[in-house]
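Dig into what follows:
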Amino acid sequence: MSGIRLAALLMCICATAQAQNYPTRPIRFETGSIGSNGDVTSRLIGPTMGQALGQSIVVENRSSGIILGETVAKSAPDGHTLLITGSSFWLAPFLEQSVPWDPIRDFAPVSLLATSPNLIVVHPSVAAKNVKELIALAKSKPGELNYASGSTGSTPHLAAELFNAMAQVNIVRVNYKGIGPATNDLIAGQVQVMFPNASGAAEHVKSGRMRALAITTAKPSKLFPDLPTVASAGLPGYEAEVLNGMFAPTKTPQAVITRINEEAARALQRPEIREKLFNTGVEVIAEGPDQLMAAVKREMTVWGKLIRDQNIRNQ
């Protein structure tokens, strides 16, 4: 047997052994702030996955996406430290001056977990009952309508900028320190438009404090079955959503990744977990590494172009 074939065989045997012995200690889910989609998903699937894997799973929250990525990138590639996050992770290189990791090079995709749509909402006083009317109103009053958003590069921010670019309107951004203050000012009528995540807007839409015009996903959503998509309601080709994925450090053995993905999918398919996520505005996807990588590359292409064209940067 040649040296190359022998080395390949030994690597295969080693990886298989690692997967059979995995996990050997508690697993850490590194994710964003408490209450974020990543945090909610982590805490719902963690106990079920931990029971199946025979180890406890600890959820660790970090408010800084840069530190979050760096923590996982520098961890041992053995499946004991996993990242659960969304687009702010893979868009960071476009938004930041310097990022100490690369979302493609330094991480291995594990599972495309879930998705959550954004909505276009307006204050009830705004004279627009649908997307076409909002575009017409914005064109008749260039620069007079304002939209509220939280952090730069978040989906509510980018979804609004994509709308501006595609509809060729100028709805002016009002930047808030968080989505909570932004929501409060929309309800108070201080701003007119917002592109919030469905989970944060549903209660206010139902109460009438906001008027929802459309949902931002490419296809209709079971979360809001009565709402049209933006694309079908007047802006063909428009699409925005919040994806959540699970990643491991690069060089994590494929057999370990496969095991983690299988247990994540089993947890997400449990009816009680699916229902709890649905009630928070999240729909389960539960697909594998290839689907996650394709989604990340697609978003980096689409949102990366928008970020460059609009010169969007974190200050």
Q: What stands out?
A: DSSP finds eleven helices and eleven strands in the chain. The longest strand covers residues 107-117.
